[in-house]
Structures
1.
Amino acid sequence: MKVALAQWDMVVGDVSGNATRIIEAIERADGAGAQVVVLPELAVTGYPPEDLLLRRSFVEANVEATSKIAAQTGDLVAVFGFVHPSGGVLHNAAAICQNGEIKAVYSKHLLPNYGVFDEDRYFTAGTDHHLFVATEATFGVCVCEDAWFPEGPIAVQGDAGAQVIFNINASPFHKGKVVEREQMLAERARRAGTSIVYLNTVGGQDELVFDGASLVLNAQGEVFSRLPQFEEAFEVVDVPLGPRSVNRSRQLLAGSVNRTAVGLRRAEAPGTSVVAQPLEGAAEVYAALVLALRDYARKNGFTKMVLGLSGGVDSALVATIGADALGAGNVLGLLMPSSFSSSHSVTDSEELARNLGIQTHTIAIAGAYESYLEMLKGAFGEVEMGIAEENLQARIRGNLNMAVSNRYGHLVVATGNKSEMAVGYATLYGDMAGGFALLKDVFKTEVYELCRYRNTVSQVIPENVLTKPPSAELRPGQKDQDSLPPYDVLDQVLDLYVEEDLGRKEIIASGYEEAVVDQVLRLVDRAEYKRRQAPPGPKVTTKAFGRDRRLPITNRWREA
Amino acid sequence: MKVALAQWDMVVGDVSGNATRIIEAIERADGAGAQVVVLPELAVTGYPPEDLLLRRSFVEANVEATSKIAAQTGDLVAVFGFVHPSGGVLHNAAAICQNGEIKAVYSKHLLPNYGVFDEDRYFTAGTDHHLFVATEATFGVCVCEDAWFPEGPIAVQGDAGAQVIFNINASPFHKGKVVEREQMLAERARRAGTSIVYLNTVGGQDELVFDGASLVLNAQGEVFSRLPQFEEAFEVVDVPLGPRSVNRSRQLLAGSVNRTAVGLRRAEAPGTSVVAQPLEGAAEVYAALVLALRDYARKNGFTKMVLGLSGGVDSALVATIGADALGAGNVLGLLMPSSFSSSHSVTDSEELARNLGIQTHTIAIAGAYESYLEMLKGAFGEVEMGIAEENLQARIRGNLNMAVSNRYGHLVVATGNKSEMAVGYATLYGDMAGGFALLKDVFKTEVYELCRYRNTVSQVIPENVLTKPPSAELRPGQKDQDSLPPYDVLDQVLDLYVEEDLGRKEIIASGYEEAVVDQVLRLVDRAEYKRRQAPPGPKVTTKAFGRDRRLPITNRWREA
């Protein structure tokens, strides 16, 4: 079967724009002689539309757009996701359209409601299946999570006679997910005896990034085609079909399976079998961050970004990703030395900026800092401000970034990493200030890996940035490692506590010092109020701070 | 039946502290000669524990605490909420304990997953019922949402023979909910032919405030006892029993109803029938805000608060609530005039502070403001900064509040109201800065109502604060009404758009000018990125910004 895969980046809320693009995909597939075109889950609304779904005007616009798209179809079958209101509830559904009409609607059976997902908040699960019976082939349709359960819709539809199943997705990226997905889909294909067309969306959406990597697997579970990661793709693939066979005994258990006769047009020209190689390790995460930043900027109307360049590894990486995502000419770095700043904080930043070709301004903050101390002295007398002094410097810098944003429209990109966000080693309204926190889900040790990876592409980040000891430079001689465990240990403990949700005893039993574990857990727990006010940033691990990890601020639970 | 109602304020995460308090309630009920003591939903963990539930160490501690509590029971029956892990899933459950053991566990049937609730994220619904059969009476137990469906657990248990049902709750407050709840419970009682003991928790928890107002209704749906709102209460009530009757025909439909024989101790002394009057209008919301602030401070370890006093109505109300919640001696007001500030901004604030008896410091911000302009001029030349200049003033004030917090440990309370939060008429990292945003869910028109209400208790807010036109005073002669619709119109449109989720056409059809509606909707949509970084604040309406309203930042949907 000749199938067009439209791995496209749909924009949340852009119902008319998305509809235009879906029609464009249909026309392009039609022109290429495909028999079926497949687009992502909730292609009409973008994913996830969140509480827009509670507004009737939005849901109605999505229904009208879906009808309009269906009206544009000819003998090519189009499969795409939309929100289907029915009987007073909403379904996360696939429309199967042909010859100017919606021939059938499949409503997602399995609604994810864990991690970043809240689908039970909006949708009611479907219970019916649809098989589409043509002379050439019988096919089925399902949506995203439906594929993840061994005896779920793919098995049912396979048993009922499907030779190929179109599984449409908005499957958020995390490291290693491509492998996980391909193993899972291979099992499903073999179990069901069907080939599978796995069509994923691509693009950045607030805290999520979708990696594409759409797949075609044959009924033996072998990868027949794979689309690239982190970019839009449109390919017409000759999808191999599974055998024509029906498992009658199983069918009795399967619930309602509706059968709809369809006529498939003749395939006009041979399709292809593209197999893009998935990215690995740091290259994959780097590409995810580039797309996340580019899409956040583009979809929110920003062309330029500003960031504070401290001479440290975090801001160096953010500037570099910024240049790759938006173009070097669209990145502005502010060098904002204080009296505690080292000379290399400026010289390293300048070298980085030259290498990248980005613009910088240097603004010494001593004057503003002194005026704050004067103001406070006037009110409170001569007192040692301590941590307040450190935070003031960070906040002056945050204010300057924001002033540039307010005046010139730049997106402020915050540079803090996941390790800092975890332990609260960042200043609220200071270095945490910004519209997007690009490294929010990247541990400090991974920041180094990403820099070293990027330097293998072209040497842009000065070696001194990668070798000097990390320091916030907010007081004389300050070094991160004076107050935190070594980053390699810290990041491992954080991984166990944050991503694995292990308790204190289990972490200690994994081989970490009691004192270190207690320190880290205490710091993480105490910083929840800061994280709650952090900008969004892209999820690249199995558990990111934000919608993926929802802890109370008011919380007396302590592991120790 | 003589029942002790322990309307207590449990702390999220404080498993050992909550267990101690539950045991205290049991001892007190025992001493008062009660036959049954009832405590809130998830009393052991506090509500809502959110993603703490994903950590095994936490769930296990809750189970251990529950066993420990059960071990303390004698012939008094104790009913309280805990998390019940069973078969690899979690239940939001009630433990029914007596004579040193957990006699039965009831798992909540109906799990709310809308508005502020995410119970499907954590819990699996129960399917069984338990009736407890004593010589004197047959009783049932259910949890919160179970009461809200006409043919739900209360009807089933009533049909099966329950004469009284204990419904344990953590039911968040919003304006008017007491009336809504009492009407609903009266219907349930009449339908089921049982009396109902509705036991609610009380207290503030991040964005939620629980109002208590626990109730006893007889089988005719009449209020027999009502506990006070917004404070802890412990009362021993002689609960009237419904008739002994079983609806056999209905029972067949009801699913599994387990029967457990229990012996009730003899009631030693007469109980009471307290009927506290519920608060109304502004008095009710005022009390909710006092408790929300007091509990946020107390449970997070703050005794003192700081706020910026602008001479405006919002900061006047926050200071007043602060004085009522924490004591006047624990409230510090910072007066931070700029060159655009009116003279009354200082004099009105000083009068307010004298009336309340709170401490103030006055810090002129002109010096810091000039130094920012100098820094920016050095980098960008002589340019008109426009909105950037306005925001700088707000951010200097935010920084000063935070410096006081960092140095002296005060909680910074942000003063912005719901109208401002809605339309983005507030500065991120400026007047939005703080640990708690007390008026986040209070419209500007309601701010005036609350002030006028509070002045009827004692005249503390200067009349000039209530009569002068609202202004941010960030540029010469600025007035809110120059750039926003009149607040009474604005608040009505916001109510329709935010709380009612109506679309543009429906709002215009309700009688508002097209231009005004378009302006308001555009402003609300554009400010989503600011709200995402706002501090938590207490929900007092049917839809608050925060976990109650979850919209994407990246969102191209526009109603116009």
2.
Amino acid sequence: MTDTTYLKKRVGQCCRHMDDEGLDVLLLTKPANMFYLTGDGRLCAYAMITRDGKVALGVPSTDVADVTAAARFDHITGFEDEVGMIHSIAHYFSHFAIAEGSVGLEYTFLTQSMMGMLTHPHAKPEGVAPRDCTHILSAMRMVKEPAELGRLRAAAAVADAGMAAAVSAVKAGATESQVAAAAEYAMRHAGAEDFWRSYVSSGPRTNIAHGLPTNRELEAGDLVMIDIHPIVGGYSSDICRTVCVGAPTAEQQAAYDLYLRAQQATIAKIRAGVGMVELEQTMHGILGDAGHGDHVFGPPIHGVGIEFEEAPLPPGHAFFHGEKEPPPLPANAVISVGNCGLYTGPWGVRVEDTNIVGQDGPETLTRYPRELVPA
Amino acid sequence: MTDTTYLKKRVGQCCRHMDDEGLDVLLLTKPANMFYLTGDGRLCAYAMITRDGKVALGVPSTDVADVTAAARFDHITGFEDEVGMIHSIAHYFSHFAIAEGSVGLEYTFLTQSMMGMLTHPHAKPEGVAPRDCTHILSAMRMVKEPAELGRLRAAAAVADAGMAAAVSAVKAGATESQVAAAAEYAMRHAGAEDFWRSYVSSGPRTNIAHGLPTNRELEAGDLVMIDIHPIVGGYSSDICRTVCVGAPTAEQQAAYDLYLRAQQATIAKIRAGVGMVELEQTMHGILGDAGHGDHVFGPPIHGVGIEFEEAPLPPGHAFFHGEKEPPPLPANAVISVGNCGLYTGPWGVRVEDTNIVGQDGPETLTRYPRELVPA
């Protein structure tokens, strides 16, 4: 099955969702969604999908030749600037004879300004009402095809290589930023075309929820939290490890062992049909039973795919993505387990791995050793 | 003058803007704006600024100790999740006795989902109307203080180091991603705590507007476009160079020479009081006179500061930022010149540098040599 066949099939599925929901056309600008449906997702571009399966792309005029090679589409337009973009959208509404009905927009992605542009009277016919279409793309992207699983496995192998390099760079005197440098350099040389922002925190900074790297120098006895996300062939992986500079205290080791036990017990429950909430409760339950119920932050589980955080997502996190509650996990969904962390106050620990939801159990893709004191 | 004094002065200026516009409170979630006003800008957090200068911060409960050390504020709240966040926002509206009037929100940053959360009836009093406040923060951040200029100079030196490493990595057989790796590794080791996404494109890919790196291998005769943006002490720099793998054709050299001439002529016109449009017309004019008027994409000039693309911005680019037209450039604004590129079809060239708007002329901060064939 070629990529083009996949894309055609995906557009067909998308049209059935649009039928079910009475949407006449989608107007997508989120690169990940455009990539999934058309084979190309770039900045400053849009894709329109009609209910009968026509695909129109608008891209910067400079990019027309490049996108022609990459994407599956029926129509393509290059525009010089945003006024041209607005007019080209209006042109497609007219060309597809859509003067009333509803257009699906990505409410979890569009800023107020972009929303204003896409719904401008010079872009969208007055009779066409905008509605959120995030959930349609999320539902489709949640279940991975075999070729997607292959790319996710490749991305996980690159994540393991990045983590090995990062852990090798952990030593007193190195900065958090330099640990990130080692991971990123190794991931690019192992085959990543790019990566999402790296998180490296150390010492007291391991207690914060989103520890972006700083120039803080590692000290003996520090914990170091490393969270990296390579992109390989358009697909991502998510791995987090916590390691100690030298020997941990008994308290640090105990917290780490507890967290790892909770994470592994949660992973062990992964199988087709299990609910996100059941997995969350497993993870939170073990931490809570040990007296750490108030020491977690953020959802412990999220999907991984074209984005390193995507559906299935826990419901309601507007800052996170703003999605609705997912169904019981289908086979071939891919989820990261261990995102919530255990934050004790002076320091925190986190271990996170990417897993395929198999019919009868998990396939854990990221495999770098889970040890507070690296061998 | 300490950082805290700066922050107090900035909040005071902000209050005068709010007075002028009749805004009762700002509710900020964009990290760059929060960093500017409070000294701390982190993900999944908010800052409220009242018209009489009170500052309240909400952060993940894990982060309270960390933010206390970093930020300037009168109140701080930790929340466990987004429901807690909504309730803490409601608490501050009540505590500050703001039951009607208007709240400033960042329309160029907030997604529809985040907007829904911040204006939820459980967060915002019904009598308080939301309005865009992007332009207030943009106007304030546009003029840099001496300490900010110092950080921008440091970031530019790191950008030069990154470019030197990237250009050294350019050779047949290396991938675009590996060229990015060299730049990023060097920037982190030269003092960057982080960087914005790197752009590296080669061969035919130099003709696209936003050339993110791929695993394409460089070939003899390829042009390679490298655009990098380190962050040092919270401030960014923006540099782009185009180099050739081996010897360029006469056509490539001529296009490069033309582009560099247009960029340098535009930089030479920088001084306090000059208009963005005048600078744009200089750049576009020289390219247009040479028959390349249709071979540019995107605004040639944008501001640089906490973000690598910020005010002053050309008006109307909703995808870019969605801001209003800036005033004539004030002294100590910082702008990048050369962002539009020259895209001939088979390949493109771009040279971009970060400059301080001086009273009588430019101070160009990024200084890596501008040569199509590196010495």
3.
Amino acid sequence: MGVGIGMPGFIDFQKGINYTFLEIKDQTIIEYLTEEIKLPVYIDNDSSLIALAELRFGSVHHKKNVMVINIGWGVGLGLILNGELFRGHNGFAGEFSHIPIFDNNKLCECGKTGCLETETSLLVLIEKAAAGLKEGRLSSLPSNFPSDYYEQDYEAIIAAALKGDQFVVELFSESGYNIGRGIAILIHLLNPELIVLSGRGAAAGKIWEAPIQNAINKHCIPRLSSNTKIKVSTLGHDAELIGASVLVMENIEKNNTVIKNKTV
Amino acid sequence: MGVGIGMPGFIDFQKGINYTFLEIKDQTIIEYLTEEIKLPVYIDNDSSLIALAELRFGSVHHKKNVMVINIGWGVGLGLILNGELFRGHNGFAGEFSHIPIFDNNKLCECGKTGCLETETSLLVLIEKAAAGLKEGRLSSLPSNFPSDYYEQDYEAIIAAALKGDQFVVELFSESGYNIGRGIAILIHLLNPELIVLSGRGAAAGKIWEAPIQNAINKHCIPRLSSNTKIKVSTLGHDAELIGASVLVMENIEKNNTVIKNKTV
């Protein structure tokens, strides 16, 4: 029926443009693919799609104001406000990964320093694990860690975390606490009823909850934070795929309604 | 026709309760006043009302996604999202004043440390001015500064700023830069088309713009921030009053519609 694409980057969903990745001359990625595939094509930010999946089929179902955190190679955010996906003025809302909250002198890939992701993304977790092993920290991580493959390293740290490896659990706690500092800001600004931890990092499960709650306890006014629940998503890896298909279905439906109305 | 109240504090607009100020036994403030005045009474957070005033009669007119900053004794925020005032799950959204972004070991009145307002509110500005004068900084501030009256001190620093007093301009720049650091977070999260500086602090006028823009230039990704304009409100001191009357009119209208529909 159609093609839905989830990608990282600054994406204008209306215009079908990803300003960050894949430059195609004179055509948007949507125009190019529609021409080649002869099917309607839609694109949106990966974190927005994960939020859309949670909204229609996951933890957000029937809820109004929810923040969906996409723990992945960055730390994205999909905002559900008044029961709908909120995209902002240009479709760029939810740049949680780059809110400047650390004074850590670590250069982020965006060019700034101190962004949330410089202490919290799964990439940083893998880097910290590698550095710790080099310094002689004991861990059940495999001997070929870090490999040259992020995907393989990601699976290794998740497996170690689920087994309760102390060193890796420590890293997840630290990262979770720092994500929690960011979430404290979200709670103050947007007073959500629920925070959902989703994206590939959610595979580590409940291990995220305590350190995040810890940070909220320290950095939030209780009157506010007592109204917000924290939950780890159960959609797992599929969230983005489900979101991409929701994107297609909702837009095809909208277009059909427009066509029907025109016919009438 | 009715009474509209703007107050600081955690306010549930639906229930008519201010959880922070004025405890009235067994009755909400709304119930108490309605009984005494025999008119419909509505209450909302001061920053939300200022945003409502800007939305109906000020800089936000016909705009969709705008953050209205209430520079006052704290630094509040009214969020206009999708063309409407956004209040969050319990009506507590917009607690900009207490987002934790400084590592300054300054205790905030909320009980936490490092909140935005600990470096940026007009109260802090007055305190910093007083401390500077004590240390011998030259300034045209009146000899009785600080007086025992915040309102008088507020007028003194605004007058000095408008006259270009170097010491006071320096204080406004510092405060503006720090507000700008908070605004950088808002821009990343919500991708607004406009930031309006309102509330009593807006009386200092354009003096806010450069330091805020400076902070945005340093702390925001240009692709995002280039879509957001900064503007000082012209509603001035009246914003909150206008907002309170908008609150009354919109709710009386809603109630009348409900009554009409019932009659039909």
